[in-house]
Amino acid sequence: MSDLDLKKSVKGFGLLFMLLISLISSVCATDVTFNVGMDGVTVTEGETDLGIINTTGTINFTDEEHNLTFSAVNYDSYNLTVNPTSATEYNVTLNETTYTIVINSELDTFEIYDEEGTLVGTFDDVSRILELTAGTYNYTAVKTGYENESLDFIVPDTEELNVSMILLPQNTTDDTADNATDEEIPVTIIVISDADSKLEQLNDFFHDNVAVMCVIGLVVIYGVGRSMKKTQHKPGNRN
């Protein structure tokens, strides 16, 4: 057998061996189920895209180890090594990605509350960041002596927040009251003698009670008249 024939034989044997391995691998493949608990999870092995899983999905693998990556928008990637010979079902949990939002403000300190009135945090010169997952937020910045400021933003679209609350006007009511107290108030003193006072009081009494005084006068006159008539009709008083 010539060298050329030998090379052809070896090459043919190699192709046959590769075909045999491929056939064995296809026969020794197993379905593996993945429970991810959410929609839109992409599964990749290296650079190969194996598909998208919605809540639960099944992928067929050869009976050997496979290094997989599970990923989704706004979630941290999850790496998992699977081997169909040891397990055919896996539970996968992806954690939400945390985004950092920087707060810019010239105020020395202030507080931020969420839409339910719960304190998110107190922010000073040392700590000026928020760490939040994806979503829409309606926060309020609060500081004593300043107007509250609404902070409406979307994560991860927002990377920075500017807080610049307006100073409330000072209350000047107390100062006005103090100034009014300090001013001298003129006092007029009227001196009335006791005689004049009593005479005026008596005059006012008669003036305010004319009807009553008339009735009293009539009663007195009537009583005097009756007394005089009785005196005239007594025995021994005839003329």
3D architecture notes:
Among the domains are: 29-96, Immunoglobulin-like (Sandwich); 99-163, Immunoglobulin-like. It is rod-shaped, with a radius of gyration of 54 Å. It contains four helices and 14 strands. It is α+β, with helices and mostly antiparallel strands. A four-stranded antiparallel sheet has the order 3-2-5-6, with no helix packed on it. Helices cover 31% and strands 33% of the residues. The chain crosses the membrane at residues 205-224.
List the uncertain runs. Answer: none
Q: Alpha-carbon distance between the termini? A: 202 Å
CATH architecture descriptor of the domain at 29-96: Sandwich
- By CATH reckoning, the class of the domain at 29-96 would read Mainly Beta
Organism: Methanococcus maripaludis OS7
Protein name: PEGA domain-containing protein
Transmembrane segments: 205-224
Keywords: Membrane, Transmembrane, Transmembrane helix
